[in-house]
DNA sequence: CGGGTGACTTTAC
DNA sequence: CGTAAAGCCACCC
């Protein structure tokens, strides 16, 4: 039966999927003050370099968790794509500006503040 | 298993 | 500048 197969595939290994979250959390938590990084860089550090989407998805679980600087994670263009998931759409930019992040229009100055996570 | 969705990225027009 | 499409992986139903 195919259904039996599905169980094995969907389940994978309970520990494995948590590892994905742990990596994202760890990296984001390591972003230094006044720096930012991109979904792509994090995805690459985790090993899912082709799926920056998963980083944002994992970050969704951080909503309400003030101990994680999710406002320092932006997209490849420096735009605050995740701002709409914050309590207020302006909060993300305000937090970054408060840390000394330089903005160019609606995007941050990647060249100046981009921080690349260590690839473990 | 299969279809839908998403805080992304890249290429193409 | 803009929109479209494909690729990507994990979650949910």
Query: What's the domain count?
Result: 1
CATH topology value: Arc Repressor Mutant, subunit A
Order of helices and strands: HHEHHEHEEH
Strand order of the largest sheet: 1-2
Helix % is 40-55%
Structural category: mainly alpha
Mean pLDDT: 86
> What is the class in the CATH system?
Mainly Alpha
Structure summary, number of beta strands: 4
Q: Please give the count of helices.
A: 6
Assembly status: single chain
Please supply descriptive tags for the structure shown above.
Arc Repressor Mutant, subunit A; 6 helices; single chain; DNA-binding
Protein architecture, described:
- This protein has helices at residues 2-11, 14-30, 39-46, 52-59, 91-98, 110-113; strands at residues 37-38, 73-74, 103-104, 107-108.
- It is mainly alpha-helical and 120 residues long.
- It has one domain (15-113): Arc Repressor Mutant, subunit A (Orthogonal Bundle).
- Strand 3 (103-104) and strand 4 (107-108) form a beta hairpin.
- Helix 2 (14-30) packs across helix 3 (39-46) and helix 3 (39-46) packs across helix 4 (52-59).
- It is globular and about 35 Å long.
- The protein starts with a helix and ends in a 7-residue tail after the last helix.
Summarize this entry quickly.
With 120 residues, this protein is mainly α. It has 6 helices and 4 strands.
Describe the secondary-structure layout.
Elements: H1 2-11, H2 14-30, E1 37-38, H3 39-46, H4 52-59, E2 73-74, H5 91-98, E3 103-104, E4 107-108, H6 110-113
Parallel strand pairs: 1-2
Antiparallel strand pairs: 3-4
The structure holds a DNA duplex (13 and 13 nucleotides).
């Amino acid at each position: 039966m195919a259904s039996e197969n599905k169980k094995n595939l969907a389940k994978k290994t309970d520990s494995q999927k948590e590892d994905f979250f742990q990596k994202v959390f760890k990296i984001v938590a390591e972003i230094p003050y006044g720096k930012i990084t991109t979904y792509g860089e994090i995805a690459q550090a985790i090993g899912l370099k082709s799926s920056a989407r998963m980083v944002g998805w994992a970050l969704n679980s951080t909503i309400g968790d003030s101990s994680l600087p999710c406002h320092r994670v932006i997209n490849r263009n420096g735009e605050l794509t995740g701002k709409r998931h914050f309590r207020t759409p302006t909060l993300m930019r305000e937090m970054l500006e408060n840390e000394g992040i330089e903005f160019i229009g609606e995007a941050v100055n990647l060249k100046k503040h981009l921080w690349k996570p260590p690839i473990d």
